[in-house]
DNA sequence: AAACCCTAGCGCACACCGTGCGCACAAGAC
DNA sequence: GTCTTGTGCGCACGGTGTGCGCTAGGGTTT
């Protein structure tokens, strides 16, 4: 019985061997990111996250103030994935912005939980990684010929378009996922409802929903870029 | 003691007099809407909503399947507030779309909790009121000269822009509200951080943040409309 | 070597959440 | 009258975020 008090320390050492240096802000954020990617926003709780790290839920609070702060940190981490190209010639700004916008959209589609968090609490507003991305985008647009003030507005426009798109896209995709039906079935059922409602038969059918989403995104992006282009020409 | 069993019925009658016809789907949705407007998304729980209606939390489930369904219903209700003008001459489509977009933005700013819900679960995708609004917008754009397929894409573009904008706006406003500081102070603090980060002094200052947001929205909207316009001209 | 403090981690507890279940009672059907 | 139907409620279950106070170990100071 005299050995019993030492058991906790044995456990601690065992745990330390498994997880090299115990908990840490970085390890927590990384684990949260994996949990979110694997199981979605609802599956993230301090308890479930603690389990992933062989730690108690409240231990996390030594390294992270809030669940909200945690999410801010994770969101900023994934923002690191969006790539904004270097500014090239004055005429290639379109390609640069296009690439950046596609990269942002791809990032959110890779981590759909981000969309669920964007509208909320005001999180994630300006971690360093998002800051960096907008800074680079600003470079892209000033190189294109926009004055600083307008470049700022232009960025907001492009970002708003992309965010709005992915918000709708992820909402739809999550509905598809939860419904169990295929995307095609769901669309057809939907058109049926709408026909009943409006009494006019719905015309268009798309046999490849994912392709349609891509095309739709591209269309809108082109529209936005055309709009920016006219602003640019109007000045010259 | 023999009178005791009748007390509940007395209460019921009392409650019925206060609240004319007891609970009902409509009354519940209306109360939820008020609660959301008054106290925000986090304040809405089945219990708090029950309290507002002098009812137990679980009584609501007789009229509403889920909290999620409830939210869908409330969201669709506020969509009724967005006004899309009738299609006028072929040249006034810009004014029509502008009015619709402003109306949608104004609605969300009136009910900021909507933004917190948009990205999530896939709720609110197509209640009758949202359906009606898009239908009317479709009319606006086909009257402008778009073919049905393109009109659909054009709607998506405009909607995505507006949704993206209000998402960012409400997130920012909620951060301002929670921080306790004024918007101006917060902006200055932010610029300071960014200067430290990028080593370049931030130039622009806006002394009226609300005005700036309006201008920014208008700028982006004009860009989108210009983009649509070029598409329209290119055809003619 | 001994005394100290600092901190990471944990368990407990609190107040709250969404919601399934079964009972009580009012209103209408026969 | 009895019977059915539907409405509301209380209870309970298994979850949530997080404050509090304890322990035990590592590092620093004497």
TrEMBL record, chains A, B:
Q: Listed GO molecular functions? A: DNA-binding transcription factor activity; transcription cis-regulatory region binding
Q: Does Methyltransferase show up as a keyword for this record?
A: no
Identify the residues that the record assigns to the HTH tetR-type domain, covering every copy.
Answer: 22-82
What keywords does the record list, in alphabetical order?
DNA-binding, Repressor, Transcription, Transcription regulation
User: What Gene3D superfamilies has UniProt attached to this entry?
Assistant: Homeodomain-like (1.10.10.60), Tetracycline Repressor, domain 2 (1.10.357.10)
Q: Name one Pfam family in it.
A: TetR_N
Keyword Transcription present in the record's keywords: the answer is yes
Q: Which GO terms describe its biological process?
A: negative regulation of DNA-templated transcription; response to antibiotic
Q: Which residues bind DNA?
A: 45-64
Q: Which PANTHER family match?
A: HTH-TYPE TRANSCRIPTIONAL REGULATOR RUTR, TRANSCRIPTIONAL REGULATORY PROTEIN
Q: What is the name attached to this protein's record?
A: AcrR family transcriptional regulator
Organism for this UniProt entry: Glycomyces lechevalierae
Source organism phylogeny: Bacteria, Bacillati, Actinomycetota, Actinomycetes, Glycomycetales
């Amino acid at each position: 019985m005299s050995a019993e008090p030492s058991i906790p320390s044995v456990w601690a050492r065992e745990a330390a061997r498994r997880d090299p240096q115990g908990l840490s802000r970085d390890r927590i954020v990384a684990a949260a990111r994996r949990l979110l990617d694997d199981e979605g926003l609802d599956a993230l709780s301090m308890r479930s996250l603690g389990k992933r790290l062989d730690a108690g839920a409240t231990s996390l609070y030594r390294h992270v103030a809030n669940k909200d702060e945690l999410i801010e940190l994770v969101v900023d981490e994934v923002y690191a994935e969006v790539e904004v190209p270097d500014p090239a010639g004055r005429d290639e700004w379109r390609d640069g912005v296009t690439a950046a916008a596609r990269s942002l959209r791809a990032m959110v589609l890779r981590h759909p939980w981000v969309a669920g968090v964007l509208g909320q609490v005001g999180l994630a507003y300006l971690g360093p990684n998002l800051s960096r991305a907008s800074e680079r985008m600003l470079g892209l647009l000033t190189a294109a010929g926009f004055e600083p003030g307008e470049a700022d507005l232009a960025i907001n426009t492009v970002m708003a378009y992309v965010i709005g798109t992915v918000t709708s896209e992820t909402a739809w995709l999550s509905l598809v996922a939860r419904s169990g039906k295929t995307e095609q079935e769901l669309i057809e059922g939907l058109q049926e409802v709408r026909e009943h409602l409006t009494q006019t038969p719905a015309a268009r059918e798309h046999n490849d929903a994912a392709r349609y989403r891509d095309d739709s995104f591209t269309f809108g992006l082109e529209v936005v870029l055309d709009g920016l282009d006219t602003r640019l020409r109007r000045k010259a």
